[in-house]
Amino acid sequence: MTGGVTPSERLARAALTRVFEPGDERGGHWLREFGAGGLLALLTSADGGKQLAGVGARRLGGYRIRAAGADPERDLSAVAAHGGRFVCPGDTEWPSQLDDLDAAGPIGLWVRGGPDLRIWSLRSVAVVGARACTPYGAHMAATLGSGLAERGWVVTSGGAFGVDGAAHRGALAAGGATVAVLACGVDVVYPPGHTELIGRIAEQGLVVTELPPGDHPTRSRFILRNRVIAALTRGTVVVEAAYRSGSLVTARCALRLGRFTMGVPGPVTSGLSAGVHELLRGEGVLVTDAAEVVELVGEIGDLAPVRRGPVLPRDLLGPVSARVLDALPARGAADVREIARSAGTTSDEALGRLYELHSLGFVERLGDRWQLTVRVTPDAAARRGGA
Amino acid sequence: MTGGVTPSERLARAALTRVFEPGDERGGHWLREFGAGGLLALLTSADGGKQLAGVGARRLGGYRIRAAGADPERDLSAVAAHGGRFVCPGDTEWPSQLDDLDAAGPIGLWVRGGPDLRIWSLRSVAVVGARACTPYGAHMAATLGSGLAERGWVVTSGGAFGVDGAAHRGALAAGGATVAVLACGVDVVYPPGHTELIGRIAEQGLVVTELPPGDHPTRSRFILRNRVIAALTRGTVVVEAAYRSGSLVTARCALRLGRFTMGVPGPVTSGLSAGVHELLRGEGVLVTDAAEVVELVGEIGDLAPVRRGPVLPRDLLGPVSARVLDALPARGAADVREIARSAGTTSDEALGRLYELHSLGFVERLGDRWQLTVRVTPDAAARRGGA
Question: pTM to 2 decimals?
Answer without folding.
Answer: 0.84
